[in-house]
Amino acid sequence: MRRTRVAATALAVLFAASAPLVGDAAAEDAGGDVPVKVAFVYHFIKFVEWPASAFADETAPLVLAVAGTDAQAGACAQLAGRSVKGRTIEVRRVSRPPEVAGAHVLLLWSADGVRVAEFLRAGPTAHRLTIGDDVEFARGGGMIGFVTVEQRVRFEIHLGAVRRAGLKLSSQLLKLARTVVE
Prior knowledge:
Blueprint: H1 2-17, H2 25-30, H3 34-46, E1 48-49, E2 62-67, H4 70-77, E3 83-84, E4 87-93, E5 105-108, H5 116-121, E6 129-132, E7 144-149, E8 152-158, H6 159-164, E9 168-169, H7 171-176, E10 179-181
Parallel strand pairs: 2-4, 2-5, 5-6, 6-7, 8-10
Antiparallel strand pairs: 1-9, 3-4, 7-8
Helix pairs in contact: 1-3
């Protein structure tokens, strides 16, 4: 319980400040709000519960598939090897929907011609969290969508899409969302 409260506080501080928690050269090269969004993704993962059946076994990695520019993918690459809930994060760059198979998280950057709708429609999405930076992402069927409000990164959640995927979000994450869509 205390660990969850500490994590919720950390996310709230991140949410309020919108300051980058990432600092390697790839994240810096990505510029703009990419480092902030990558930090949010890392914290979102902490507040999601996947069913045991989503993983091959207890030691299987949590796979983050990333569709976007080289700089965006580079910023996300620094999450590789970090541990969340006893699982190591494995980061994969993807450019086509079939490459998403086996991913637990799909991060879709709207830049670089990523066809968000095509990724969201392709294949089974059971047990896969989808995150995007398109302003209409959560309203368009994605699960967590970044929005910018008063020059700060915020997020919206499509709770119906999360539930259909068989995932559970922490109530702390839901409280911090700008909007929760059923």
